[in-house]
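Subject: Interface between my chains keeps coming out wrong

I've been trying for a while to get a sensible model of this assembly. When I model each chain on its own everything looks fine, but I need the whole thing in one frame so I can look at the contacts. Pasting all components below, labels as-is. Any help appreciated, I'm running out of ideas.
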Amino acid sequence: MERKTKVSAETGKQEIVVTREFDLPLELLFKAYEDPEIVAQWMGTKVLKLENRKHGAYEFETSDPKGNVVLRMNGVIPEFVPNRKITRTFEMENTPFAVQLEFLEFEKLTEDTSKLTMQIVYKSVELRDQMLKLPFTQGINMAHNRLQEIVTKLK
Amino acid sequence: MNLRRDVFQAIADPTRRAILLLVASQSLTAGAIASNFDTARPTVSKHLQILTECELLKQEQNGREVYYHLNAKKMKEVADFIEPFRDMWDDRFNKLEAIMKNYKPGASTAAQRDSD
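Reply #2:
Try treating it as a single job with all components included. I did that and got this:
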């Protein structure tokens, strides 16, 4: 079975390219990135701020089930072209990781299908590899939530 | 100077990926591997050296011949490295797709929201 989400991380390059084809019209795919409520749902994070415009900024916050903030993420948006592209920075607060740059390109494939290409550029090759090796924010959160649930049941 | 013999460098090269596929089914000598490529023999040797250095291939002495075989454990590490990252995005995108499928396509999204 062909995998829908593809990740390409060429050796020696300081970038990762993630591509995904959606069974969604382009407008709906873009809307999922534009609407703060929808972003919150699929990213599994609280959206504190999302300014969809050139020179806008955003702030996300993830909490554990007890409401403790696990991770805060923020960035600025140098480019915002509806149904076409979003360029943004991404930073995880209180971590030693340098800001990364993300180029998101939205493409219409057919009336009902679309494609997203996300190019993530890191400060260095080493940083990229380190980031790939991280158990990842979502992974961290999921593991954390899971742990919380288990611990809660034990009590 | 800067010897970067990591597995990702190893699998970045198409010939090396082809070599890995070849030995995946059976252990082969350097000569047998080289006979599958148009590339000059020393070039293939160089590829084998790199693959061995980063432990994707293991050498096995069998009489006078050295056989190369795949180090499955190391190969799995490579897959595991990118997989969590890919899985994370795949999960998110699957969710995104499921959410947006409940949006009825066609009408403008703002109007739709009110009518839903």
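Reply #3:
Confirming on my end. Chain B is about 65% helix and 10% strand.
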